[in-house]
Amino acid sequence: MSKIDKRTKEYKEWKRNQESKGLGDIVEKITEVTGVKKVVDSLTDDCGCNDRKKNWNNIRLFKKNINPRCLTKEENEDWKSYRDNQKWRIEGLKLYNDDIEYIWKTYQSLFRVKVSKPCSNCSPKPLMYMLDAIDTLYKESDL
C-alpha cells in the first residue's frame, strides 16, 4: 500500500477494511501469517476457504453494533423505581446480590446478549457499564 494521509477519508476506509469482521477474518490472517494459506493455495484452486470465511464471519464474536430493544412500559417503571430507591447509592458503593442480579438480568434482556454474571467481590466496572447502558436506554425511551 502506498502512503495514505491518515487524515483522509481514503485512509479511514482502508483502515475499516483492515479490521476483522469476525472469526473468518481472524483465521484468514492467522493462516496468512503462518504460511498455511500459501501452501493450501498452491495445492488446490478452490478449497472452500472463502465460503468458510463468510460463514465464520457470521458468528458474532465481537459486540459491535449491538441493537438494544426498547424498554416496555413496565420495564421503564421498574427501572425508574429501582434507580430512585437504590440502597447502594445511599449506603455507599457496595452492590448487593439483589442489585447485581437485577442489573445483570435487565441488561441481558434489553441488549439481547449473554454475559457472565459479575460477582459481588469483583470490580464494579462491568456493573457500572451495564447501569450506564440501561440508563441511556431509559433516558432515550419515550415512555
Shape designation: elongated
**How many discrete domains?**
2
Q: How many E-type strands?
A: 0
Largest sheet: none
Count helical runs. 8
Mean pLDDT: 78
Residue share in β-strands: under 5%
Based on helices, strands and strand pairing, what is the structural class? mainly alpha
Pick out the low-confidence regions. Answer: none
Helix content: 55-70%
- Report the order of strands and helices: HHHHHHHH
- How far apart the termini lie comes to 51 Å
Over all CA atoms, what is the radius of gyration? 22 Å
Structural key phrases:
143 residues; mainly alpha; 2 domains; 61% helix
Structural summary, described in words:
The longest helix has 16 residues, at 125-140. This protein folds into two domains: 9-57, no CATH class; 73-140, no CATH class. The chain is elongated and about 65 Å long. With 143 residues, it is mainly alpha-helical. The chain has helices at residues 9-18, 23-34, 36-43, 49-57, 73-84, 87-91, 97-111, 125-140. Helix content is 61%, strand content 0%. Helix 2 (23-34) crosses helix 4 and helix 7 (97-111) crosses helix 8 (125-140).
